[in-house]
Design goal:
The structure is a single chain. The chain is α/β, with parallel strands linked by helices. The chain is built from 14 helices and 13 strands. The chain folds into 2 domains: 11-40 and 263-357, Aspartate Aminotransferase, domain 1 (Alpha-Beta Complex), CATH 3.90.1150.10; 59-260, Aspartate Aminotransferase, domain 2. Helices cover 41% and strands 15% of the residues. It is globular.
């Protein structure tokens, strides 16, 4: 290794691997929890017309005011709560970690969203794991509460529903964690369009609760727009760390346009929920698979022992890309995860899977 690199780059950064996104050209892409439905053509024409007035020679509106107004109406965000926009939820996680850092502890269940651990490392914080039960990925609440008391985390992230397991944790368990936590608890509701519960209405009940969401699963992944909802006293502090003009002009125009027509994307989410149920039933009827219930737009399943890698490779040979989770965490041994696609994509995935399993 270059001696200057070794001298200047922190050892924990050198030990990391860059976030890898596999190429998907020409494949049925069911690996990244995206909404498979494009914007309807009539809506697309109106969107393009809205973009024509974009003043690209000027910096973006600094706070994304139009987007925040549209979010408040479309997502029924209480007037008592403030909104902070991020370049994806990743940036918001980083802002939170930078704000409370100074060598503190971030906690999150594992397996969960990989960026919680990665951003803890990037910001010089310590990551501590909240345990899940191996049979159903539910929170091991007694052990979780013991670890919270031991580590006194400044930040706890709870993906609700969880990625990659797809399950909702018991609301009562989350409430116990909110009551026990000495720092902030962030409910990451990235998959809210497909779920049946939210803590957005609980923000007034807990001084240490924030809710984080993204428009990526809503059907706007290309915009890279996340938002954090919580008390103004908290968000005013985080806003000091947010880089200027972090939400570009085209994203602001596009997001505000789409949110004013949110019923179109809600209808797409409804279709995905129905297709999720059909896909779950089909997977559950395949011999040798253990399929886990999901409140998100993906389904986790366990293959016969030792076959996950071969099945993943066989699917890829047939032009279907899903996510191989085997090897990423002990609880995900032999597991694969498939995003719910269009009915035709789901059919072709199931055909390929039956062929891959022999």
């Amino acid at each position: 290794m270059n001696k200057v690199i070794e001298k200047l780059i922190r050892p924990e950064i050198r030990a990391l691997s860059a976030y890898h996104v596999p190429p998907a050209d020409g494949l049925i892409k069911l690996d990244a929890m995206e909404n498979p439905y494009p914007m309807p053509e009539a809506l697309r024409r109106d969107w393009l017309a809205a973009l024509q007035g974009a003043a690209l020679n000027r910096y973006p509106e600094p706070s994304g005011e139009q987007v925040r107004v549209a979010l408040r109406e479309a997502m029924a965000i209480p007037d008592s709560q403030s909104i902070l926009l991020g370049n994806g939820s990743d940036e918001l996680i980083q802002i939170l970690a930078m704000a409370v850092g100074e060598g503190g502890v971030i906690m999150a269940p594992e397996p969960s969203f990989v960026m919680y651990r990665m951003i803890a490392t990037l910001t010089g914080m310590t990551f501590a794991e909240l345990p899940l039960r191996p049979d159903d990925f539910s929170l091991d609440l007694p052990e979780a509460l013991a670890r919270i008391e031991r580590h006194a985390p400044k930040l706890i992230f709870l993906a609700y529903p969880n990625n990659p397991t797809g399950n909702h944790w018991a609301r009562a368990d989350i409430e116990r964690i909110l009551e026990a936590a000495p720092g902030l608890v962030v409910l990451d509701e990235a998959y809210e369009p497909f779920a049946d519960d939210s803590f957005l209405g609980d923000l007034d009940r807990y001084d240490n609760l924030l809710v984080m969401r993204t428009l990526s699963k809503f059907g706007l992944a290309g915009l890279r727009l996340g938002y954090l909802v919580g008390a103004g006293a908290w968000l005013n502090e985080f806003d000091k760390i947010r880089l200027p003009y972090n939400i570009n002009t085209l994203t602001q125009i596009s997001a505000a346009f789409a949110l004013r027509r949110h019923e179109v994307f809600r209808e797409q989410a409804g279709r995905i929920r129905a297709d999720r149920a059909a896909l779950f039933e089909a997977l559950d009827n395949l011999p040798g698979l253990e399929v886990f219930p999901s409140a998100a737009n993906f389904i986790l399943f366990r293959t016969p022992q030792g076959r996950a890698e071969a099945i993943h490779a066989a699917l890829l040979e047939q032009g279907v890309l899903i996510k191989k989770l085997d090897g990423g965490h002990p609880l995900l041994r032999d597991c694969l995860r498939v995003t719910v696609g269009t009915p035709d994509e789901n059919r072709r995935f199931l055909e390929a899977l039956r062929g891959a399993m022999g």
